[in-house]
Amino acid sequence: MWYQLEPTQAHIAYGLIGAVSVIFSLVSLVFKEQLFIGEAIVGTFFGCIVGPRVLNWFDPSRWTSKVDDLTFELSRLILVIQLFATGAELPPKYVWKHVRSLNLVLFGAMIYGWLVLSLFVWLIFRSVGLNFSDSLLVGSTFVATDPVLAAAIVGKSKFAERIRADIRNLIQAESGSNDGLAFPFVTLSMNLILNRPDNIHAGKIVKDWILVGILYQCAFGVLFGVVIGSLGRYSYLFSRKQHWIDNESSLVFYVGLSLIITGMASILGCDDLLASFSAGCAYSWGGQIDFELQPSGEEHTDSEPLRFSSIVDLLLNTAYFVFVGSILPWNEYSPYAGRLVALGVVFVFLSRIPAMLLLQHITPDIRDWKDALFIGHFGPRGVGSIFCCLLAKHLLETRSPDPSSHETLLKVLWPITTFIVVVSVVVHGFSICCFTVYSTAVKVRIERQTTAESMDSVDPADKPKSSTRRRMSKLRVVQPDADDPGFPKYAYVSRSKVTLVNRHGDVVREFENKHGSVSPTSQFVAFKEGNHIIIESNGSEIKRYDLESVA
């Protein structure tokens, strides 16, 4: 063959990843707004087709003999960028303001899910040689919900507009923080596996776990991330104030700060994932400053701004899930097919939903059982589970004095984890359209009343319509501050209820909808009159409430 027509595996990979990215981009609105499918499930399906099991066009095992190491570092790269973005795009001081709800959902779901899934792994796979300590390690790979899939499903999709902002923020904050907090579960399980056969006292195992896994890796990781994120924020603001940084460099700064965090945190031996999320939260602590690409054209005046992070996430996530789809061990699933299916059913129905239903009564941000069911269902596993699985394999192979004694665990760890990831991608990816029953709400942007004049100061020729005459004939309209937490920005309107949400995503008021259905083109106007906030829809008052009564 002519030597110019002998492409390398890397060239084929570039072409295939570029092809799926271009095709998905061309029909992205169809997938996201009509089929409610994100880039993760498209990339995984495409990777399976072009991978070694079908067309054999895309095979990472031909690139290197250390596919696990390559996958591990790619997973780390995707996670640190996504975790930093998740923290940076949360409302200012969100973690502090919602600490109770976040901690209840975070630790309640993690501990419950770890114990339940570990128990069922042991019950289902003990006949193949797994003991309970081994099962705890397998279960620890499912502790972390995935920020990549969570963002693709409820964070940046069209469906996200139908989810109340406080619920969406809670899901994203949980998915961002629990990836780093999965480390202690992995290390505790690993300590039990490696030390219990030597009859080391349980107290010493717990002491080492608290000192190293909790205090150094996690607590120091949080502190390190906060310091780097704060320095990054002040450096960026100072440079922008001095007009030293251009628009294009904002993207480099965003990604580069994520890489600095993971590099330095890994060198120091602390939790780089938790450090990345903490840095993102510190970066936006005083207000979101992520550079935005504003949409152009009059037809987009009501659209949300496009963020650099969204563009980077779309490109990286598509490429990563094509890669994951190509390395799925399909031949390793067949010996455990029945067991894996049973574990998949347990994962979907028992890993989170019961815990959320129990916690709904004591969690402030979970307002009813529908919220609890929704949060319990949308706990996808993906990049974080793959990362934890490969970390566990690495620790077993390097720290165990006799890795061959863990042959069964090493043999089943990868297929179990990847199968659950496939189940999660499929179930959570395709269940979005089914979960529209959760909320039939229409998200309506609330416009602020800009008129601050009294009726007496308006010329007769410029007198407003009768719907506003009543309002303007009263006292002067006092405009609230831009950061007023009691002033609504969006209304989520369903057939039975209207929920008002402020610019931080907090629910400021709820009331029954007695005015029929509201379309996306409805014009909501909010204005402050004395100590009251009044909401009008298409010129008619639908609600007024006392500002001091807002929780």
Walk me through what this model shows:
- By secondary structure, the protein is of the alpha+beta class.
- The protein has two domains: about 5-295 and about 305-435, Na+/H+ antiporter like fold; about 440-550, no CATH class.
- The chain has helices at about 10-25, 30-35, 40-50, 65-90, 95, 100-125, 130-140, 145-155, 165-195, 200-240, 245-270, 270-285, 310-325, 330-335, 335-350, 355-360, 370-375, 385-400, 405-430, 465-470; strands spanning about 290-295, 305, 440-450, 490-495, 495-500, 505-510, 525-530, 530-535, 540-545.
- Strands 6-5-4-3-7-8-9 form a seven-stranded mixed sheet, with no helix packed on it. Strands 1-2 form a two-stranded antiparallel sheet.
- The longest helix has about 40 residues, at about 200-240.
- It starts with 8 loop residues before the first helix and ends in a 5-residue tail after the last strand.
- It is found in: Membrane.
- Keywords: Antiport, Ion transport, Membrane, Sodium, Sodium transport, Transmembrane, Transmembrane helix, Transport.
